[in-house]
What does this fold into?
Amino acid sequence: MNWKAGFRLVSNSVLVVCAAILGTVACSSDSSAPSTASTPLKAGGPAQNPSQVGVAMVYSIVPPSSSPGLFLDKPIGVAILLSDTWAVTARHVVDDGAGTKLQLALGDPAAGAQTLDIDERRTLRHPTRDIALVRVKSGFKGLPPSAFHTISSLSRDQIIAQNSTLDCFAFDASRVLRRVNFAPNSGLASGVQDPFLLHFGALATTVFESADSGAPCFDSAGNIASVHKGIEPGQTNEESADGFRVFANAAKNALIVASGDVNGDGDEDFFFVTTTNIGGVDFYDLTLVSGDGTSISLTTPIQVVVTLVEQLMLVVGNFNGDKRTVAGVEHDIDDVVFGLNGNFVYYHGSSTGLELQTPFALVDSSVTYKDAKIGDFNEDGIADLELVQDNAFSFSDVYFGGTAGLGKGEEFLGSPVSDPDEGRFHLVTGVYEQTYTSLSQDFIIGVDASAPRTRIEVYDGYFGSRYDFGAGRSCFRLYSSKLGMTDTSDPSVVPVGVVVPSESLVAHGWGKLYDGPHVAAAFSPSENAYTYLLRVTAGGCDGTLQLLAANAFMVRANGAVGALDGDYYARDRAGPAAAPNAAFLGGLPDTTYDGTFTYYYQVTDSFKKLILRDGDADRADDEDFPGQQNIKSLCSYTITPYGGTTPSYVNDNPSGQYNPGLGGPKDVETFKIDPIDPGIWVQKWSNILSGNMFFISSVDAPEIPLLRLPAPRPIPAISSAKTRAWWSAQPQVQQSLPVTLGTGTNLMVVSDAQQAIQLLAASYPGLGGTSSKKTALCHVPPGNPAGATLISVGTPAVPAHVAHGDDKTGPANHALFTAELLAAKLNVVRAAALGEPLADARPLGRLLQVFQVLKVADEHVRSGGEICSQPQLFWDELEDLDVQLRAINASEVTYLEPREFTPPVVGVPLAQGAFGGQSM
It folds into this structure.
């Protein structure tokens, strides 16, 4: 499914548009349709300077094989400026230029024209019309007002009915862009007809050339009446302003843009937040331009009058999991959440579009929010919404998606809550391996309301029976509350207070399994508000506290278990001891480690770091992998912002010293969170060996809210394309072997996966290739780090280069990443070799076509020019390509963890082939 917020990424390619040239420029034509022009243009009026009216040439810019620079290669279209930052052109001009780099230049580029890059994230393609809007990253300077145009307010019929001249721009045969005057009833043009066609007599020259796509025609007031689509024998096809007026005007003035599919027809719908100032007051509106070309303005109650805007937020996602099948293809039906100044309203999508009559407020008007995030927070296959409060603590409210739409999750004060993981987990709290010292210890347990009974287990996690009997034994009390329910006359409501007295729990061995109170079937999961407080007290059950040196009681439940802030908790080993007594295990459910365990934190501005300690001082069991003691890798402990990027980690105890005595320091690692991104964070533990225990606690966080997840829902069946969460496949375009790989003259026709490995492995001479005598380095000129370039030197010369400031880390990292990228690419080839269809994919609204992704992957992998001068950009692009290839290859990619991919089926070994002999 596709989840969108804010501006979307519309293409992997870098796209730019070039402005109108002055005078004659010799260029070849990249035909979008056949041209019949062979003589100079015959116009009813004199040619005019295109730059004075903001008519832009769209050029393709490609890197020549003989030079690392860029040059203007060929004109492929025309654009017209709406403002100093926005231009409108034909959509197929942008699409046809995929895989090339374009620039928007005003005037003759050879004469020093203004050259501006397009912000490709804000390139907007109309969902159904041959129209696209492009936005430059910085505005043009010094243009006259006549360079900017508005969209005509006239209908197509009104334009046709005009007796005035119709002005258009087109090329003549000498490839000069000129302004041409047409009388609708002249001998040259017989009129403008639906779908806005200019017809010409049999003897007349076809006025428009093949590179004229996107060229405008103006009405009598000088406003844009149409945009050129293409030519056919004897006529030219135009896109009337009727079809893109609302789209273009909304996009040009939009403060926020998002996209989705609100009726599940498979066509993209655009949402624009715009503002209108009336009498000094700003009115904010949300405009929808749907896939069928219609547009509506979502006003009441979304239209809000304010004088000071703090935050505008627009989120589109399928929050109730509904879908629609069109022509055999299943599509998500998206919903819309719009927020202004922290107040949100929610519109349902349906097979007939947005249910405009039933929006409802999401939040209490007393709470405002400063950020919105989207993702499958509880991994049930339905999108959830996180709203970060605008206050000193930056607490979050999470609205969980479900069949009834968004519903708010409950929030309690405490430390992390764990994923139930089918009830097969253990938590222990306390200082080091002690559960408590002359104190009471509290566990918070959230209960699944859909379960008929709740089971909570309390057991001794320490060797022996000390403190398990007599006056000094530990006591347990279980308290329960039903949040939001005050009707105590309801017999199904458990009153606040002691539910199970301490005497009913056996405090030795594994303790006693017992059932909690019934949860009435009348309560739906959305009303799940049962929580339990389990209090473990050191000392006699008469309330006398005893000083206990060490004990470790553990709690398990078929709900979510957490600990109050300031206490330590841990994921225990497989059983109460490394070599547990068999009597402890008799008749109990499986307690072995069964995967990654997940914990959720509410990170606030005061949340600085976490401390990780060895819980049982058994250094031998602190290995992530055999023979690597005290190495806590990120594969074992990861904590990341929910939907965000991984922060940096610093070990405050790199020496690995520890003290096995009670109360002393143990192996300590401190995860310093940098940067702080307030909101829900997700921590996952994996690769923790059996027979070990780790403790973790917050630092410098006075309050960490505990988020209780709602009742788990079954994950819907995964489609045949094996996609879930972030990606949705469109099995429409299929491709099988042989596959052509490469660019330019370096094309390779691959018939099987093994051949692909051999061919690709031999294509990296810049990184050492198959030679064991070369090493790639980033050569850094003295005093000019930005001028770093990639070089390949003999291995004996490496120390001298490194001593003079050259760096081998960048190429080495690039080689490692490229190997992964190669593996992903080869998986695509292998899938085709096995006869599997390669489906186009739509990540976040982008259409990824198989052939385009393969082409771009070839270009990136075969080059390395930016890994020294712009390494972060280059690696980001490689990572993006890796994700795209794996999506097309039907590998599982999740929304919350886009960096954790399924291991490739086909690997590229570093010891041989592509990177053999590379000095890492």
